[in-house]
Design goal:
Beta-Lactamase, two-stranded antiparallel sheet, 9 helices
Length: about 250
């Protein structure tokens, strides 16, 4: 049987060292800790960076574990933890926005609603927990789709406004990544709209989304864009949940 491969052992040692550390480490610190030549440590780090297993801070040049490696270990955050961390923020978002709040996580190419707060009024509403929403026709889904969720080829047109072409979806996802939020207006149900923002965990991985939904004339401006006040509330809630989950950036 062949023996162990030294370069892999050294790469594993670097990853373990970064996992134990409380912050980022420089090449010199890593080389000294593992008794490696600085050039050797740097070469391994660059290789690990190339596959997304480590990330380098642009300002300091130091390294930390990368999102790709964290994603391998956690896949997506356990939905029970996501829900428990987000409950208080979801309640606060409903109170501030006056609209219903849903938290979604990816599940088999769709969005699983893991928590739902009713709109704080006396209107008749039904509980959406456990409901599966389409990725391409919901604000929650667009957020998840923009951050590495695979979309099936055949897309159902729920309304005449539903995005059903790959070109339109890719364009929408690019806008979500650039803006940091998603919206939909009468794309799943005519007359209903939603705004959502990503929830991030350790390493900045998007593990879910939180958003508001309601009548289009309450959620959107006359031109169809989200009402700025609601958008601010949604993004603030997403940041708060992300902080509770250990995200250092979003």
């Amino acid at each position: 049987m062949p023996g162990p491969i030294q370069s892999i052992e050294r790469a594993a040692a670097i990853l373990r060292l970064l996992a134990r550390g409380s912050g980022r480490l420089g090449v010199g610190e890593i080389a000294e800790s593992l008794e490696l030549a600085k050039g050797t440590a740097h070469g391994i780090l660059r290789t690990l960076q190339g596959v997304g297993f480590v990330e380098q801070d642009r300002d300091t040049g130091k390294y930390q574990l990368g999102a790709a490696l964290l994603h391998l270990g956690t896949s997506y955050l356990d939905v029970n933890e996501l829900r428990s961390r987000a409950i208080n923020w979801a309640d606060a978002l409903a109170a501030r926005s006056g609209e219903a709040v849903r938290i979604g996580a990816p599940l088999e190419g769709r969005v699983l609603v893991v928590h739902h707060v009713f709109r704080p009024d006396d209107s008749l509403q039904s509980l959406d927990v456990g409901t599966l929403l389409p990725l391409h026709a919901s604000a929650l889904g667009k957020v998840l789709l923009a951050y590495d969720t695979t979309l099936k080829a055949d897309l159902e047109p729920y309304t005449r406004r539903t995005l059903v072409t790959q070109t339109a979806i890719k364009r929408a996802c690019a806008k979500v990544r650039e803006a940091g939020w998603a919206s939909e207006n009468s794309e799943m149900i005519s007359g209903e709209a939603g705004i959502a923002a990503p929830i991030r965990g350790h390493g900045g991985i998007v593990v879910g989304a939180i958003g508001v939904s309601g009548p289009a004339d309450r959620v959107c401006e006359p031109d169809g864009t989200p009402i700025p006040r609601l958008l601010t509330h949604v993004r603030d809630a997403a940041r708060a949940v992300s902080r509770d989950l250990g995200a250092s950036r979003w």
